[in-house]
Structures are given as C-alpha cells and as structure tokens.
Amino acid sequence: MEVAEKNIPCNSVVGGNFEEVCSEKVIRFKPPLYKQRYQFVRDLVDRHEPKKVADLGCGDTKLLKLLKIYPCIQLLVGVDINEEKLHSNGHHLSPYLGEFVKPRDLDLTVTLYHGSVVERDSRLLGFDLITCIELIEHLNSDDLARFPEVVFGYLSPSMIVISTPNAEFNPLFPTVTLRDADHKFEWSRMEFQTWASRVADSYNYCVEFTGVGTPPAGFEHVGYCTQIGVFRKNSGKLAEPFVSQQHDQHVYKAVYTTSYPSLQQEKVLKFVLVGELLIQVERLRLRHQRMLREQEKELDPKPGDTDFSQAPHLLLGEVFTEAEKARIENSPQPFCEGEKFCIPLRRLLAYPKLHRLCVEEDRMRSLIADSVCLSNDGSAIVVDLHNSWDYWPEDN
Amino acid sequence: MSGRARVRARGIIPGHGAREVGCAPGDLTVSVSPSNTGISNDDGGRTFTERGKVRRDVIDLSVCTREKLAHVKDCKAGSSGIPLQLVTNLFSLDLPQDWQLYQYHVTYSPDLASRRLRIALLYSHSKLLDKAKAFDGTILFLSEKLDLKVTELTSETQRGETVTITLTLTTQLSSSSPVCIQFFSVIFRKIFKKLKMYQIGRNFYKPSEPVEIPQYKLSLWPGFAVSVSRFESRLLLNADVSYKVLRNETVLEFMTDLCLRTGMSHFTETCQKQLVGLIVLTRYNNKTYRIDDIDWSVKPTHAFQKRDGSEITYMDYYKQQYNITLSDLNQPVLVSLLKRKRKDSSEPQMVHLVPELCFLTGLSSQATSDFHLMKAVAEETRLSPVGRQQQLARLVDDIQRNQVARLELETWGLHFGSQISLTGRVVPSEKILLQDHTCQPATAADWSKDMRTCKILSSQPLSRWLIVCCNRAENLIEGLMSCLRRVGGPMGFNVGYPKIIKVDEKPAAFLRAIQLHVNPDVQLVMCILPSNPKNYYDSIKKYLSSDCPVPSQCVLTRTLTKQGMMMSVATKIAMQMTCKLGGELWAVEIPLKSLMVAGIDICRDALNKDVVVVGFVASINSRITRWFSRCVLQRTAADIADCLKVCLTGALNKWYKHNHDLPSRIIIYRDGVGDGQLKTVLDYEVPQLLSSVTECSSGASSSRLSVVVVRKRCLLRFFTETGHTVQNPPLGTVVDSEATRAEWYDFYLVSQTANRGTVSPTYYNIIYDDNGLKPDHMQRLTFKLCHLYYNWQGLISVPAPCQYAHKLTFLVAQSIHKEPSLELSDNLFYL
Lengths: 396, 831
Fold this sequence. Notes:
The structure holds two protein chains of two kinds.
Chain A: E1 2-14, E2 17-30, H1 33-48, E3 52-56, H2 62-67, E4 75-80, H3 83-89, E5 109-114, E6 129-133, H4 141-155, E7 159-165, H5 189-202, E8 205-212, E9 226-233, H6 242-246, E10 253-259, H7 266-299, H8 322-329, E11 335-337, E12 340-344, H9 345-350, H10 352-355, H11 361-368, E13 380-384
Chain B: H1 3-11, H2 56-61, E1 82-94, E2 101-109, H3 115-123, E3 133-135, E4 139-142, E5 150-156, E6 162-173, H4 178-194, E7 198-200, E8 203-205, E9 211-213, E10 218-230, E11 235-250, H5 251-262, H6 264-275, E12 279-282, E13 288-290, E14 293-295, E15 303-305, E16 311-313, H7 314-322, E17 333-341, E18 348-353, E19 358-361, H8 365-368, H9 371-381, H10 385-401, H11 403-411, E20 415-426, E21 432-433, E22 438-439, E23 465-470, H12 474-491, E24 499-503, H13 507-517, E25 524-529, H14 534-547, E26 552-556, H15 557-560, H16 566-580, E27 595-604, E28 611-619, E29 627-635, H17 644-659, E30 665-670, H18 678-697, E31 704-711, E32 718-722, E33 725-727, E34 733-735, E35 746-750, E36 762-769, H19 775-785, H20 800-816
Parallel strand pairs in B: 23-24, 23-25, 25-26, 27-30, 30-31
Antiparallel strand pairs in B: 1-11, 1-20, 1-32, 2-4, 2-6, 3-4, 5-6, 7-8, 8-10, 9-10, 10-11, 11-19, 12-13, 12-19, 14-17, 15-16, 17-18, 20-34, 21-22, 27-28, 28-29, 31-36, 32-33, 34-35, 35-36
Family (chain A): Belongs to the methyltransferase superfamily. HEN1 family.
Catalytic activity (chain A): small RNA 3'-end nucleotide + S-adenosyl-L-methionine = small RNA 3'-end 2'-O-methylnucleotide + S-adenosyl-L-homocysteine + H(+)
Enzyme class (chain A): transferase
C-alpha cells in the first residue's frame, strides 16, 4: 500500500463567494483508504472462513456486497440506523443473474435490519464474525458505553473487528479537526487500545491491534490512518444457538432479505447436475465421432488433410490432474450399441465437474431420470451417436 | 449522460425558460456523513434518459402526424362491423388532476465527478429528506415545488470538503410530456426491482422461477416487457409476458464443443461466425454485452491497465475482485464495444470479457433453424390467452401487494389500477373471387379446402421447362408430374412434360447443368435438391434471378417423399409456379377502381451488414392481382430507403403500360420501421414518393398518395372475454380507440390466427394521407389486402404487398446478395 501525495488545487464555495484555497499537500491513499479497510476484512474472511457474518453500521452495504461472493459465508447480515439507505441499496445484494446459471455450493441468505447497534436482537446471536467498520466514533457516550455489553456480552461472536480513525494521523491532513462532522470523537492509539483492552478483558476476548493507511515516509511515528482491533473470543464458550430460541428478541426491522440459489437446494442441484452431465455427454459423443472419423480417414487417407498433424495453438477445455485422469481411466468406458452411444453414469461421475457435486450414483439416477434417456439397467445414459445438427466443415 | 444527449433530452422539453439566478444563496448548511463506509449510491446506476439516450419510441411520439390530416382531426374511428368488448394488456395509471412534475437542474461547486457522490450528497440533505424525489446525478425530479426557483444547499463530503449544490427549476412537466413518460419508466424500473426482477435490455425477468429445457441446455426466465406511455387520452402501463432465453453453458464450454466439432483448422473462423453478434451475460455482474469480436492473441495471463493506471493480469483481477479462479488460461478474450462513449473521446469504449465467465443468451441462428429446438421453446413460451391473462393478473397482484412498490407509487401520487377494457369492431368477412366462382370461406384463416375444385383467375400454360435433379431423385419425378397434372387440371394450370436433366449431387453440378440448358425460351427451371440445400439454393437462385433471369422452383427431395402429402405438396408447387409465370390465383372485391397498393420492406444483407436491401412491390392492375416487384441494394447506415423514387416511378410506368392511365390513388404500406425512425420516414421517404408521383403525372391530375407504417411487433394484446375465460379476438377485429395514440391516425387489426398462442394484432399508422379515405374504408381496405398473399390460402398478418416485399428482401439478403434482374419484375419470382 502506498501513499500518493498530490497537489490538488481546490476551489470551494462558501457563502456564495469563491474563495481560493491555496494548493496544499493532500494525502491520497492508493488504493483508497475505505477500500483498504474492506480488503482487511476480506483477508480475514479468506483466512478464517466464517459462516455467519454481520456488519454493524453497514450503511450503503458496500462491504456486504464484497463479502457476498465468499463461498464460505452462508448468512450475511447488515444493520444500520438509516432505513432509507438500506431500502435503496438492498437490491445490490441480490444474487447476480449468473448465479442462477452457475449457482453457489452453499446456501446464502442476506438480510438487512434497520436498528441500532446498542439494541439486542437475538437474530444476531451465534455469529462467527461481526465487523464494526468506522462505527464507534459515531456513537455518543451513552451508546458507546452500552456498545460492549451488547456486541461483546450479548451477541458474543467468535470474532469482532472494530476500526476507527487514528487521531494522531490527523495533523497530516490540511485542516481537519475531526474527519467527519458526525464523529463524536477520534481516538489516539493509546485511547483506543486502552478502551479495547478493557472491553476484551471484561468479556473474555483477546485483542490484537493493527491498521490500514500507512503514514508517509518520515511520519511513521503517527501510526496507521485507520486503527483496527481484532477481537477473538477465548476458547471454551462457543456460541450457543439455543439461546436464540430461548430469548427470542426481535427488535430490528428486517428491511430486505434475499436467498441465493445453491447446490444445497434439490431443484438447483438437479439443474446443475443435468446441465453438466449433458455437456460432458455431448463432449464424449463428439470425441467418439471424431475418433470414428479418424479411423475412417486412416483407411482412406486424403492428401492435404493436416487437421491433426497441426499442433493446436489453443488449449480449450479442462485440464485434468493426474489423480483426475486416473479416476476417469478407472471408470467404465463409453460404448456404442449400433447408432446409440452409451455413457456409464460412473464414468460421468469421474469427471471433475460432476465429481465435485458429490452425488451418489443412485441419487444421480433419480435426479436425472426425467431429463435424459437411461439404458435398461439404468447404469448408463443413452444418446444418438449422430445428430441432425452435427456438421463437419471439413466435408465441404 | 453525455453532453450531446443532454442537449437532445432538453430539446424535447418545450421551452424551458432562461435560468434565473440570484436567489438567496447558502442559507442552509448541512453536513453529510454516510454512516461509516464510502459513498452512498442510488437505485441502480441508470440515468433518466437510458444510457444517455432518449428512448427511441418516445421520440416517435413527438412526431405528430395526425394534426396535418384534416379528415381525421376530429375522429379517426371507423364504424362498420359488429362492436366487440375486448380486454387489453393495458393498465390504468391515474394521477391527480393538477399533477405536475418539477424538473431541476443540479450543479455542484466544486464540481463532483462521481455520480454516486453527487447523488449521496443530495439525497441525504435534510431539505429533501421527506420529499418524493428521483435524481440521476444531473436532473432532479420532485413532485412538490421548492419555494425558490434557484435553491442553494450546502453539504460536506466525507473528506470534509464543503460543496454547494445549486438546484435550478428548469421545467414544470405535465403528465403527458415525454420527459415525464421516461420518468414513469424509471419509477417502474424501481418497482420491478423491488419485486426481485432483473432488468435485461428493456424487459424484466425472474431468474428464480426458470423453465428448464435440459436437452437443449436452455433455461427460460419468465418476465415482462413493460412500457409506460400516454395512449389516446390517458397514461397507461402496457405489459406483455416475455421470456429470456439463457443457455446453460459458458462461452468457453460452447467454444470447446465447437472445437471438437470443427477441428482446429476451421475452429477460429467458425467460432467467430457463430459468436459475433450474440449477447452474453457475465457471471460477476448483471450486465449484458454484445460480442463484437474475439481476440485470440489475448490470454487471461496477459495484463491490462486498470482505471487507476496500475497493471494486472485478467486472471489476478478476477481473483482479487470477484474471488473467481479461471480454470483455462489459454482461452482468448471476447471483445465488446460499449454503446456508451467515454466523455472525453468519440471512440467507443471497448471491453474484454473472459469466455469462461460469460453465459450466452438468446438463440443463435443455428439454433433457430433447428426445428425440434424451436418447437420445444415454443411449447414453453407460447402462452394461450388464458395463460397470458393469468401472468398479467399475477404481476398486478404482485405490484399491489408489495408494500415498497405501493409506497413508491403513492409518494408520487400515482394510482396503479385496473386492466383496461375497450370496444373494438369485427369488420365483415371477405369473399374470395375465383375465375367462375365466388366463395365465402368457412374460415378466413384457411380457404384451401373451399377452393380445391375451383379455377384460378388466370395462368400461363407451362410447356417449356426443365427439371434438374440428381440420380437418386429421378424416380420421384414421375410421381410429382402425375400429381401436378391432377391438381393443375381443375385449377386451370396446364403442365407440359419437362426436360429432365440428371446431375451429380453437387452444387456446382446443378449450376453447370442450368448454365448449359437454360435459354431464353425456357419458362421455368425446377430443381430437386438433396438435404442441406443452402449451398445449392443460393447458387441456383443467384444465377437464375440476376445472371440469367428465368423463374425457378426449388423442391427438397424430402418434401417429395412424404407419404400421403403429395397432393397438397403438388397443389402448393403448382400455385407457386403459376405465380412465378405471372398468373393470378384469386382476388377480393376492391370497391376503389384505379387504386395502386404497394408494400415496402427493408432488411440488412446477411453477408454484408453495411448493405441495406429494399424491397418494393406494387400492384399494377385495379383488381390487385398482378404485381411489380423491385429490389434495390443500397449502402447506408440507417434502415431508410434512398431509392423509393425510382421504385415508385417504375411501378407507375408499369401501371401506365397496363392501364393506359395513372392510378388515381396510391396507398403504400411501409414495413420494417424501427423505433425512433418515424420522423426519418416522414421527412425522407415520403418526399421521395411524392416527387415520383408529381413527376409521373406531368400536368395531368396527379395520383393521391397515402403512406401507412405497418408494425407486426407490438406489445399490445387483445382478448375477448366469455364467461370466466378469455380467448383470442376473431379475425377482422379492429381497434381504433383508447389503445391508440392521440398524435397519430392509427389502428390495430387482427388478421392472423394463432392456434395455440395469443394472437398479436398488427399496428397501422397512417403518417401521410392525400386520399382522405374514411377511416372505415382505410381499415377495411387494409383487411382486404391481407387476403391477397398467393403463397398462403388464407389471411396473413400484414397486407399482401408487405409480405411480398418481405419475401423478396429475404431472398436477396439471404441468398442472392445482388439486385435481381428487372426482367423478372412482372412475376412473383421469389415466392
């Protein structure tokens, strides 16, 4: 991460008069600081693979949008007090169209709640990660005082990330006292760490401090622009899901919720399975046809047919690992019965794209039965070797 | 919105006054703090003028043609026929009487480049907090007027910069203004999003409820095509069921299969041919792109420059940005040119897409020619009137029950309501006139049975003709000949014995035989083609339509081997051959003597997209049974004809030769007019036609001209309600009120049948009319003309000259690729 310093002339209009603000050194982070903060969370998700993640003070849901692509996350929740923002941004969290074609492996539900972080809502219990990015500095002293008991004490997730401005960095900015007019305070590293350590101690968490936004050369002593505390619950007391049933407390208002299609849903699994299967069948059929044609050609070689002697300049399609190759080779071979081409289900299941779906042969048979034609004993898929839409341009 | 587009958008707002400046500035200071993260944004990144353009169908509505037509100024409705109550797929959108929309121009000082930031600052300003508002970054719409004409607001960005936002009232819009119509479209776009639908193109789809056709790797996403606009007197929402076809494979998978099929030597070429022009959907956002090219030299391992100037490989980019790992590092990239241009340059922006991350949408031309596939798709998508009505009812229900959607409508004062019913008329059915017999068909959809034993109007005996076939097909000729004679006799079409030429089963052999044996004496050449006829067909038609103009008839071997079908096949062939020799099959009663009708259709050449093929077909007798056909190729960017003067003049000369006079009336039906082209047709094509008429008349009273724009594809549907169910309206149903437009002299006519699906009415817009026929006569004449297409013994969806012109342009655009010889212009050689 780097800091770029730029001379940016800026005109600002105050009270209708143009006032020349002299060119000043303005610190610009590259990538922008907010992106660095998000990246920090993403790295954390990559490393710890949490299932349930909540972002408190999610605002325009930008962080959630970045997190919804992670395959490990199955429940993603955003909480904010600005209901309008949640309303207008909800649909950004809906699945991409492409996710209906190539669905996720695991279910994912995204929900946005309107409510305050100092209220207790049992639907946020039992989370693996709760993030509070640039949140606490917006809390007034009463709320700040209640914040730890709600988030650490009540919600008690396995991991909490809290980021907040580092006041020691502020002198490097041109005019700023507080970085945002809504900030109630900005802490020095010492202030933050003192608060954080105390909170960690009282709720049985350990905390590590770090940050993003490296200071420019010569100013290393001020520390990161954004300071971050990563809290992890000390082992032993794990999240207890039964709590939610015992004290159902629904104070938040669900503003938006969406569920993603995934392979855990039978309908979706069937769709993907049949799709991948037919692609593989078609590929094997074409390969077999080509093989037959090659054999014909060998018997009756035509001059100038360079099709296969020419080294392909493109490699298209999957590349198998040795293990995959072995698995495929050890499965029963496709075979021909007259004009019919039969591919054993076990063969098909050996190909990586089908193998990864982890479907047993019997289950597969029942899932695909009404979409494909099976052999009498049900062990193979049967298709016509030649199709009306087959064409071989070499013929012309 | 680009500067130019903005100017265009403003252009259609009638007279917004000069901007007044000087109202009390800066009396409001509010700071904005998007709670913790970056920057807020709006409802999805579209501007009010979709991608910087005013929607094209909205442009058309500003072309007010009716006001110039005195005879329909007060009333454009017909009167004949039986009134019929019809249900439509239109829904009322009611507004309070004095409803107005206030449009503000918004500027920022210092200027902010980020649209998102502009929107975020404005939206969170307390002054506007509780107001119904829509903002695209530049134009703000409010349903309530602000106190001052110019309002200055002060906000503070997250970085602490103070920004002054100036809102200047530019216009007050009534609900009928075009800008307002676009605004309503934006509102509905929002509502559809709330209903968890996705916008693709201009339609909205529900991918969560797909219909699967696994054997063809297709998914169909159900959805709706929607448009809000002002019909005759009120604002209405028009919704029709639509399906998005999605292929369940990535472009990479498609390429891999193709590679297996074609082998390496033909691969890149075939790939290019099959993929370019298709629309893909990317996996990592909801955007669709058109494939304009494939760049085989770029691989996922190559680096590109990001907007911030840093370089990254495609592979790393997708990993970083979307957590996607590419499996094939040898795939090429797809190239797409974006429609939207970058602000600072005129070069279209280009994007690279990775095949593995793109899904194909729609059907390829290869798929559409697969009968079985199309049948499977049709079975799922062809909805009966009842099915369609159910879907529409569900949509209305969804909108009305969704709280957020309802709220959105309410804040703007819109009331979304009932399905519109209206009264149409069913015009009287037509009699079919044959040589010595007049028949009243049992159904106008198909009178082939009614005329089975009847003599056609006129025909040339066929005595000098050739049949070219390959050896295998020789045995079929005897059977064909006997059938032709058996059907030809009662028809009055005498078929002599042909000269039979046997050739090898190769396109070149067919062509050589034709070149060798065709001389000016030959009346017609019949070719019996083996399967995969495209190569044969194109070369034969090319030679016999332009190099050596002789009518030709191609028949597939397959067609001649259909058991039990031979008589109907032979009837069809006999009728086509009669027409190709200049015969006339049947007529309808045309009360106007000395009337010429003509059809124009336009399409793009299949091989060379820069070439526009214009087909012009005009009647040359007052019975409207003989036709003059001309096709012109022109190089133009737009689908607008340059050559109409020469076409019409040719037709008028021909008319004069046959009738020794000029027609007193000419009515021209123009098909193939796209959205937004109405003005060009009016300003550019009508004058060409008029100047031809004036020049030909040379002093004598000139013919009177009318020009009618024909549209087969419209969103509108009509149903008749019987008891608790709905049905297709009967043939001859005319609608000329409520669902029509106040600005135009227009009507809908149902002239085709749909056996299983929902019939779609054809829309007629009379944009120029010297004839001053009563609307009633215009409608009935149009209906009569739908009976005169000789390739089909029944009613068709458009007037016959349009269908002839279409058939002609299709032949030229697909097969011949050059202008057919004028020697054939008296014959319907392209049937």
